[in-house]
Amino acid sequence: MTKYIFITGGVVSSLGKGIVSASLGRLLADRIIARYAPARERYLGSDFPFFLYVGKLTARRNLPKLLEAFARLKQTTSLPHKLVVIGLRSINLDIAGLAARLGISPHVVHREYIPDEELNLLFNAAEAFVLPYTYEAVSLTALEAQATGTPVITVDTPGLRETTGGRALFMAKAEVPDIAQAMARLAGDPILRRELAESGLQHARRFTCPQSSAQTLAVLEEAARLPHPEASPGLSEGSPL
Predict the structure, then answer these.
(1) pLDDT tens readout for residues 36-71
(2) Cβ atoms within 10 A of the Cβ of 150, count?
(3) Is the pLDDT of residue 21 over 80?
(4) Whose CA is closest to 121, among 45, 36, 48, 49?
């Protein structure tokens, strides 16, 4: 989500840009298993539940910690879940190599790119979307997950709390124990998953292009009604600054 701040003659307005696209943010009509089971089978080889991460693969976004947390989850629980990672490598971060060293290669799938329609299916099919960011203020992908009725796990920062509308399972920090605990909790609590899915979807519906256009127009109209500030003393028309 892009945040725009307008400062016009002492008036400050903030607008959230409408970012949930029709293709990525489209909720499958009924989320029935028959609809998204093929997506699971295509990427996982079977109809396994899975956690999803979509975004750049950088250490700053705590991808190594996410994989370590998932390894701990597999070691300490009997959950059948997989981890699907979608994103381009912007640094030399070897997802396959790290998964091998952690002993979770059979349970981790990485794709650098998939078509929008299939990404939409994966958002719908995921049991949860995991966003272990520490330094990001906003997240488009978190809203895309909410727009498909998929629960979000993320870090409790002011920016991400605002982005998700508080409708997420928040971690105190993006450390391995916290991430593993959050994934285990959400995977084992269908009531919590349903509550976050429903409230997240409601929140994501606020971010539409018509709504953002109307907000932008309202701010521009307000700015147009304000008197123009007086020219600074000593400056005349055409004077160099």
Answers:
(1) 677 777 888 787 899 999 998 877 889 999 999 999
(2) 25
(3) no
(4) 36
Give me the pLDDT at residue 14, please. 37
Q: Look up residue 159 and give its two tokens.
A: 């920016």
Indicate yes or no: pTM above 0.85.
no
Residue 70: phi, psi to the nearest 5? Answer: -65, -40
Q: Using CA atoms, how far apart are residues 86 and 53, in angstroms rounded to an integer? A: 6
The fraction of the chain above a pLDDT of 90, given in percent, is: 46
Residue-by-residue DSSP string for 116-170: HHHHHHHHHH-SEEEE--SS-S--HHHHHHHHTT--EEEE--HHHHHHTTT-SEE
